[in-house]
Amino acid sequence: MRLSIACGVNHNFVQNLLNTFNVESNFLTEGRGVRIDKVESIIRASKLPFFLHATGRQDTAETMVEMIIARRVHMHTPISEELMEYMMKQHQDGISYGEIAVQIFEELGVSYSKERVRINIKKRRILNM
Question: Which terminal residue of the chain has fewer beta carbons within 10 Å of its beta carbon, N or C?
């Protein structure tokens, strides 16, 4: 889960600006922006004006914060058989682990990391061999 800010050659300025708000960020490998990876930094960044006045970015930031909060609640909740079957079908249909995690959140309000989705799908495939 990450937020990205495209900023071209101004990435040093943007990163320094984010740091003043205690938001940790890294340069995008392409050198055209900065990326915010850490959960607490995503939560802080979602409240900053350059997210608040850009509707698409703000929606993405708010969804991430909702997923982070839900993930903390469901961190140790076992995945039901019905949900596992849903994840397997989505994966067989070529949906990425991250997209499966987003779909589960949007449809059920339950948040699992893409890594947890990946691990559970791989475990199930091994068991079904």
Answer: C
